[in-house]
């Protein structure tokens, strides 16, 4: 089921990378063409190989982007939440989605039709810089994700994940894990048993994890671990 955007939905959309640098009059044109989708937990938004007909922005809940490897294993490419957009490069090229998307929780998504974005570029060429900026941010995020997987230890990846959940400026925090640990492991490029070992290593930094939350005694110590550039430095932190 789909419906028109509310004022709150428009506010969330304007915070996304797709709209952040667009002038209000141009973003308004796209938002007038957009609609809201509601998905239940486990419902598939699109599958790998489907035509990219829209750019999506998460208004509420969590969406998993993933691919199924030839051996049947699931590779989690990303997990998107409120204010995050996905699908820009494929929609602009009118290409096929390279991943599948599934609701991890009940979700509300803002769907911006690809044809509306392409029509805007034809009638308002000045919007191209803003749209290209959004695509660049998407690619930059992928590069950072690859760097995290290649150059960071499991403990560092988990530390960075937990820091993203902490309130800005907090000295200590108790954060709610937004989805189950199997999905966290997939998102961080780890096996569930590797995630458990990483959580165990973080106990020395005052991190206590239970089924659905993590208590962090010192955010600064966790930041020091996440920012360590070499395993020797990481070992000194731990």
Automatic annotation (TrEMBL):
Coiled-coil ranges (or none): none
Cyclic nucleotide-binding domain mapped to chain residues: 18-121
Superkingdom as given in the UniProt entry: Bacteria
Cited InterPro entries: cNMP-bd_dom (IPR000595), cNMP-bd_dom_sf (IPR018490), Env_Response_Regulators (IPR050397), HTH_CRP (IPR012318), RmlC-like_jellyroll (IPR014710), WH-like_DNA-bd_sf (IPR036388), WH_DNA-bd_sf (IPR036390)
Keyword flag Transcription: yes
Any one Pfam family match given in the protein's UniProt record, by short name: cNMP_binding
Listed GO MF terms: DNA binding; DNA-binding transcription factor activity
Keywords recorded for this protein, A-Z: DNA-binding, Transcription, Transcription regulation
HTH crp-type domain segment(s): 152-220
Keyword flag DNA-binding: yes
CDD domains according to UniProt: CAP_ED
SUPFAM superfamilies: cAMP-binding domain-like, Winged helix' DNA-binding domain
One GO cellular component term noted in the UniProt record for this chain: cytosol
Protein name as it appears in the record: Cyclic nucleotide-binding domain-containing protein
Organism of provenance: Paracoccus lichenicola
């Amino acid at each position: 089921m789909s419906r028109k955007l509310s004022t709150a939905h428009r506010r969330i959309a304007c915070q996304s990378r797709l709209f952040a640098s667009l002038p209000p009059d141009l973003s308004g044109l796209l938002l007038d063409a957009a609609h809201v989708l509601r998905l239940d937990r486990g419902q598939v938004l699109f599958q790998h190989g489907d035509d990219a007909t829209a750019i999506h922005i998460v208004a509420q809940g969590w969406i998993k982007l993933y691919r199924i490897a030839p051996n049947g294993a699931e590779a989690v490419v990303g997990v998107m939440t409120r204010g995050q957009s996905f699908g820009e490069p494929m929609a602009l090229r009118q290409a096929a989605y390279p991943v599948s998307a599934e609701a991890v929780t009940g979700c509300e998504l803002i769907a911006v039709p690809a044809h509306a974005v392409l029509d805007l570029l034809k009638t308002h060429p000045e919007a191209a810089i803003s749209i290209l900026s959004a695509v660049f941010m998407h690619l930059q995020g992928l590069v950072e994700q690859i760097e995290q997987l290649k150059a960071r230890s499991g403990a560092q990846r988990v530390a960075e994940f937990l820091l993203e959940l902490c309130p800005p400026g907090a000295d200590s925090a108790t954060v709610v894990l937004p989805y189950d640990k199997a999905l966290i492991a997939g998102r961080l490029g780890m096996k569930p048993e590797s995630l458990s070992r990483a959580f165990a290593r973080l106990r020395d930094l005052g991190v206590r994890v239970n089924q659905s939350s993590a208590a962090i005694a010192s955010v600064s110590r966790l930041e020091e671990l996440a920012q360590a550039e070499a395993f020797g430095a990481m070992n000194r932190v731990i």
